[in-house]
Amino acid sequence: MPIDIDIAHVAKLARIELSEQDMASYRAQLGVILDHAAKVQALPTEGVQPTSHPLDMVNAFRDDVVTPSLDRDEVLSQAPDATDGFFRVPPSLDNE
Amino acid sequence: MTELSQLTLVEAAAALRTGECTSVALTESVLDRASLTEASVHAYLTIDRQGAMAAAEASDRRIAAEKPIGPLDGLPIALKDNMMTKGIETTASSKILSGYIPPYDGTVVKLLREAGAVFVGKTNLDEFAMGSSTENSAYGPTRNPWNLDTVPGGSSGGSAAAVAAGSALAGLGSDTGGSIRQPAALCGLVGMKPTYGLVSRYGLIAFASSLDQIGPLTRSVQDAAILYEAIAGHDPHDATSFPGPAPSGTERLGAGVEGLRVGVVNELSGEGIDDEVLVAFRTTIDRLANAGAEVVDLSLPSTATALSAYYLIAPAECSANLARFDGVRYGLRVDGSTVDEMMSLTRAEGFGSEVIRRILLGTYALSAGYYDAFYGQAQRVRTLIIQEFATAYEQVDVLVSPTAPAPAFELGAKTQDPLSMYMQDICTIPSNLSGHPAMSVPVGLSASGLPIGFQVMAPALGETVMFQVAAAIEALSDDIGRPVLEVVAS
Amino acid sequence: MNWEPVIGIEVHVELETASKMFCGCAVDFEAEPNTNVCPVCLGLPGALPVPNRKAIEWITKIGLAFNCSISERSQFHRKNYFYSDQPKNYQISQFDVPVCHDGWLDVTVAGATSRIRINRAHMEEDTGKSIHVGDSGRIHSATETLLNFNRAGVPLVEIVSEADIRSAAQARAYAQDLRTVVTALGVSDAKLEEGSIRFDANVSIRPVGTEPFGTKVEVKNMNSFRSLERAVDYEIRRQEGVLESGGIVHQETRHWDEGEGVTHSMRSKEGSSDYRYFPEPDLLPIEVTDEWRDEIAATLPEMPAARALRYVALGADGDSASSLAGSEALATLFESAVEAGAPGNVVANWLTGEVTAWSRRESLDVAESALTGKHLRDLAAMVAANSLSSTAAKEVLGYVLAGEGGPAEVATAHDLVQISDSGALEEAVDEVIADNAEQFARLAGGEDKLIGFFVGLVMRVTGGKADPRAVTEILRSRIS
Ligand SMILES: [Mg+2]
Ligand SMILES: [Zn+2]
């Protein structure tokens, strides 16, 4: 039995607008992949620390020194919409 | 003298020094070659003819003044299009970054610029480096110069195809689960993934941050060692960068394998591997033994779970890494009445299906209630793999396996079945999870004339012995030559 | 039913480092929009974060000041949620292992001291700023949003209390005292109006005498201590009203509306609280060794509470001592005046009274005035020598603050010096007695209330500069 996932919820969390048809196909594919991936659960890992970095290193810092920032015109030239030195986006919530 | 575009880096550098050719001539040669091959191969997304010629001219002035910067000065190199190049469009083969001009150079790009390298252009890849065939590109697939009906492997298939086709002398790729080594194997090249942390990731579009490493795709082991040395080293812009000196790549080339212990990983060299690949693998093992290496069979049982762990860790990390592509600050935007709608429409339109699949997978694997069973467990499995490798390296100097389970497959053969595509990386993924270095060396051709690769793996910071063994294998193997490519002038 | 409020407070403090948390862009809130941005803080493809060492030292300092334990090894996590002013659509924050944990702050309200436990203090990065453009300027009717990423990536320390607070007044006191400590550490200017310190309150209520917590509501958007107190107070009463009338309190975030004096429900998208935390793979763990922690501890200034106790010993009353200890400028003046020999009680009263009032009236920082500790010492000495009345002393203080000169100079210039020369005073008294012989006879005969009449006359004759106590003494000596 492939793992069944709430694809609509996942797509919403990931901010990807999907059609009903796409959702159904991703849901099926993800079920199969997850089924395979779930093999990790078969290994005994009690007391095993998770690896979050393959080399055992700590404390990489930078000094509190100011370095040059980017040129604003160059930055905004890549923006889909900008005005008066600001990035511009649609409003946050639906109008009531 | 051979066609300039077919020289190795070492040969070309020598020709520049002796005045046999100029950087401009070399660069023109690969650009001319590209104009012949690109219509069929499609290795490049962007060719920067003007920038390349300017760099070549500058290099020729230095060489004429007898002040070359180093071994790469004046040599034309291809860059995978997931590396930031200031002023040159960088898309990661995604529609969401169509037309994006970065305001900065990544560290590796900067290092190579400073070393006098000439950038031919930006090469095709599976979108955001997710794939093993370079078919998942918003700008169309790349084809394998050895056989245009087959894929070059991926995700660094563009760089591999460019080097194989002669439209660059060497290339850079990035390797998250085998994305340098597998295309190297499929295109008959040397491809190398350094120890995690040796090469800066600053300026590399992140796929899976804890796995990604940049590395060389070249025509010889020595070329790979030289290019690796040029890009390795501590970078203060990458907090995960190794602070000590990078191990030498070139120091023990030619030292042979006499007395070295070579471990054959059982789990990676039997089931699921194509017969022809296994024959070439066994032949090479025998040659190594004859050359004085001590060959040991080893079992690393948790590597069998590596693919599963990888398909939780890589999607989880990518789901966060790709969240920044939202239509706000750069790239594609699809309008919406609210900012949320704008983001959701933009991401649906801008990402290809493989990328969406992995983002959804990773989002799910991290979400409330599933974290521990999936991502958390995968990271613990990773620890087991590291421990198993560590034990193995107490007994042997290097581990070996085939690189890819089969030679290049036909375009479209696996696009409908994600899992079978993922199987391409079964031999390469363990080294990404452990963070260890690994490389692929060509060891022969299949009956149908397609290259076969052999993988050498080494412990963390074990690059020197890895290159030593790889160079020995190269010397012991029959030269597979260059692909014969039917080209039509475009 | 009687209800007991249960309140926890989350505080976000922006650190005043020179550069941002993970990149070299300047921390500068006055800059033109989007000029302090780089690949890292704009979330450009390929950029990587590298943590600011000073920010780690400063959060450790904050933790130590609040009696926290410092984690030997802590870790950054990614907190995933989409918001347009958050460049990467995840915030680099901390999750299960913050830099600081398990501390406390003692808070006194109306003479009663309570220990408020601090759960944790963790390191994170700030977001950019959104300007919602529209008719009313409110989010709900905005027509577009403008984004400025200068603030994105500024180091932010989040300090989370346990739900140990039991009243709105206590919530206010906790917030005020916490701000005082942060300010004393010199790690943030901690200005509420500018948002460099921000308070959110988690409020729930439960029947008095019961253990289980009620449903908590998060209240945001308070930009003064007074509004924090009002908002918490309002929310307590609102929840009481809901429960008394048989309703249910919903777990939600509510916005404090300062103008209307009420909290509003903020509509939030369903499921948006699934943050999918995972260890930040771009960053290494942070290890604060004992040696490093001790080095940081050695840079801690005296904490306000300890300082206040010391000021009480120097003569200040309890309330004044706390006020002085909470202000660097007042504390400096107090200490230098006392060191120069001034009586602590007198100086403390002046500083918390006239000097503080002057600062408020003029909207000037005390540190910007001409007043010195030596001035205060001289002023106190003049009062003690009876050459200034206490009323005149306060007037003199005003002129000194305004920069007119030292106390002696100013008192002379404004003709405020008392006649303390006994010869001159005796002459004046005798003159008045001679002119009013009949009344003096009645005074001498025991009609004691006439003493005020004579003092008044002497004051009039001397133009108000006589010391009334000295005049009284001389009159008494004439009677006997
Ligand atoms: Mg926070
Ligand atoms: Zn920045």
Structure description:
The complex is a heterotrimer of chains A (96), B (490) and C (480). Chain A has 96 residues and is mainly alpha-helical. Chain A has three helices and two strands; from the N terminus they run H-H-H-E-E. Helix content of chain A is 31%, strand content 6%. In chain A, a hairpin with a 2-residue loop joins strand 1 and strand 2. By secondary structure, chain B is an alpha/beta fold. Chain B has a domain of 250 residues: Amidase signature (AS) enzymes, CATH 3.90.1300.10. Chain B contains 15 helices and eleven strands. In chain C, 39% of the residues lie in helices and 21% in strands. In chain C, helix 5 crosses helix 6 and helix 8 crosses helix 10. Chain C has three domains: 293 residues, no CATH class; 110 residues, no CATH class; 58 residues, Arc Repressor Mutant, subunit A. Classes of the chains: A mainly alpha (96), B alpha/beta (490), C alpha+beta (480). At the A-B interface, helix 1 and helix 2 of A face helix 9, helix 10, helix 11, helix 12 and helix 13 of B. Strand 2 of chain A pairs antiparallel with strand 9 of chain C. Magnesium ion (MG) binds next to loops of chain C.
**Tell me about the biggest sheet of chain A?**
2 strands, antiparallel
Structural class of chain A: mainly alpha
Oligomer: heterotrimer
The low-pLDDT segments of chain A are: none
Query: How many structural domains does the protein architecture of chain C include?
Result: 3
Q: What string gives the helices and strands of chain A in order? A: HHHEE
* Average pLDDT over all residues of chain C: 92
